[in-house]
User: Fold this.
Amino acid sequence: WGLLDREVYLAIWIVVFTLLGFYLLGKIRFAHDDELKHVSVTRLTLAIASLSFAVYMFPGMFGAPLKALSGYLPPMHTQDFVINTQGVVSAPSATAQTTEKIKYADILHWPYDLPGYFDLAQAEAAAREADKPLFVDITGISCVNCREMEARVWSDPRVQQILRDDYVLVALYTDDKTKVPENEWVTTAGGKVLKDIGRINSYIAQTRFGVNGQPNYLILGRDGQELVPKRAYNLDVEAYIDFLKSGVEAYNKTK
Assistant:
């Protein structure tokens, strides 16, 4: 919903789990609690777990990625204070392939400062101009698995290099509620008019690519057809790198 920045979210969790740890140790009591004279092994174990979790989250206040929680936290670009800017999400106004204005770059974001688009037609035109395969990321703002893939797979420098150097990128957010201009509305086969980014991209994903979940990753050639089988949620970094390389190889064979 965009109500909490990342550091506010983390601050609440850190305080809650710290207080929980002290409560389990008997250091905090409520009005109807009996005095705790001895700490059982179970309470001690739970207290250690709670306090350890709070300690783990603390570096996140300064921009640590916290990969184990990446899918559940607000995105990194909502955080105001980051010591290490590596891995911070940004919203570029243009990509490496072109100096044109990127549609929706003011509201949508690519991780790791990757140069990418958010509109399929604009990205397809850029891919033709750059003579590169098109990498399509079917994603969502509230997609937990998407954030986990970005934190645990896309964080690998080899993945980022391939995406940055060998592809034109487009992220199709399927749950963004931003309204588009009337000339960009899409009418479905059933006559329903789609007026926002999320519904339009969801319709594209279902009708053109045959997918209705996130994340899904596709690699398209010059004719807009898939060069290799699409890939979904899978944290195997090496397999993901092979997937990206196979897409480049398949594209080069069509030249």
